[in-house]
Amino acid sequence: MLEKKQIVLFYFSGTGNTTRIANEMLNAFSVYQYKAVLRNMIHLDSVELPDACHVGLIFPVAIQSTFPIVWQFAESLPSGQGRKIFMADTMEQFSGGIVGPMKKLLTKKGYQCIGAREFKMSTSMQLSRKKQFEGEIKDKRALIDVDRYVRDLIDGRAKWRRIPILSDLMRRISHSPKVWQNMSQKITLDASKCIGCGQCSHFCPMQAIEMVGRIPERNHERCIACMRCLNFCPVNAYKLYGKQALQKKVVDVNAL
């Protein structure tokens, strides 16, 4: 049985899936009489934890692992001192390079890893109506499954497995800055549509987009291809692989 301590849920969300899971998890813990709070990873200059608490990490899968910003946050966590920790990630199909390596990192920091769950959800790169429809079905299932995962954590049934060789290899691939720079270059701007509002620059979690006059310019060395600019541009001026994407706006951009 999970002790009745405060639960601190740290999350990062690119386009909204993880925000939805984090809020569902917050509500589920509250239903079971646990005090839980949400903390956005990108809004924290430093990480402090109450002496008596459990910790949750919630984030998206990217490049079969997760974004550099999430790894940096996990590495910045203070010593676990035996605190219980769990994770949840959101993905379209497959990860491979996150569950095992994250457990390895957190165990070394002194945390007790009690559960990991991966939720299949809609992709942030929707290029067809079929993908859009499939994603809506996945999202509904995932949000229902959150309560089951929370109950498993509370009852001690949750698992956090590790497959060393495969997962460590996948993590190594996503660790290369060139991988992210290559993904960043797949996102292009249709300048004829851009209205120079600056929203993409304002909401970029990595401050990788700078307004030069009325035109946003991307710094590929900082960009992590989270697809926030692509999905929340008010005039849909961004393209992916040279194609017009179907924007996914499952939450308000201010909630990210």
TrEMBL record:
Residues in domain 4Fe-4S ferredoxin-type?
A: 185-214, 216-243
- InterPro entries from the entry? 4Fe4S_Fe-S-bd, 4Fe4S_Fe_S_CS, EFR1-like, Fe-S_Ferredoxin, Flavoprotein-like_sf, NADH_UbQ_OxRdtase_75kDa_su_CS
- The protein's superkingdom reads Bacteria
What's one Pfam family the UniProt record gives for this protein? Fer4_10
| UniProt cross-references to SUPFAM superfamilies, sorted A to Z | 4Fe-4S ferredoxins, Flavoproteins
Q: Which UniProt keywords apply?
A: 4Fe-4S, Electron transport, Iron, Iron-sulfur, Metal-binding, Repeat, Transport
Q: For this UniProt entry, which segments traverse the membrane?
A: none
Q: What is this protein called?
A: EFR1 family ferrodoxin
Q: Which organism is it from?
A: Fusibacter paucivorans
